[in-house]
Amino acid sequence: MMTELQQLGEDAAKLAAIPVWPLPDDDITDALHAAHRLEQTAMLLQARLVHHATGRGIPTAQGYRSTTRWLAALLALDPHQARDLAEAATALHHPAIGQAVLDGRANLRQAAVIAATIDAIPADLALLNEPTHPADPDSTDPSTDPGSTDGTPRFTPDDVTRIIDEAERTMIEMAGRLPAYQLRRVGDRILTHIAPTWPTKPTKPPSPAKKPAPIADAV
């Protein structure tokens, strides 16, 4: 791998030195798209290496309290650059998101936003299913029922799987036309759509017993 990386680096350096002034306008924009995708592919390789380094405990073994600080020192990165790379590495435990970057359907910042949304879903649904106070078996008040009015949970495991898959697929599709900051807003709307009554620290389970509408309705 090191030999191939060295060769790629040399080839990329030669390509970067080629004069671009003779190129027509269309070729300039096409080359810019191609160069951007090449950059994202290289960044994906960096993210994969960081992912495995973190899993092996290399930053800790070298005396750093976080992967971000390790990257900042190792690669002489600004703090926000190191943080972005660490977040991108975290996103790679979702294979479909990593593949989307490799295919050119998302960049790494978008991938980190999508992964953050997906990772938030299970915890939120668990909170919705978990009672925060005992339900009164003689009460007909649905606000005292941690699930639906017939005693079943609002979300089943199949529901959770479907919601995660649909949210991931929807956000990857939207990455083709939305930058990361707008995609983050989509993620926020998806989470609100799934759990519309979820406060920061819930004091009681939500009263609606119906399951959420499709994710597409939120975006």
TrEMBL record:
<feature type="compositionally biased region" description="Low complexity">
    <location>
        <begin position="140"/>
        <end position="153"/>
    </location>
</feature>
<feature type="compositionally biased region" description="Pro residues">
    <location>
        <begin position="202"/>
        <end position="211"/>
    </location>
</feature>
<feature type="region of interest" description="Disordered">
    <location>
        <begin position="194"/>
        <end position="219"/>
    </location>
</feature>
<protein>
    <recommendedName>
        <fullName>DUF222 domain-containing protein</fullName>
    </recommendedName>
</protein>
<feature type="region of interest" description="Disordered">
    <location>
        <begin position="128"/>
        <end position="159"/>
    </location>
</feature>
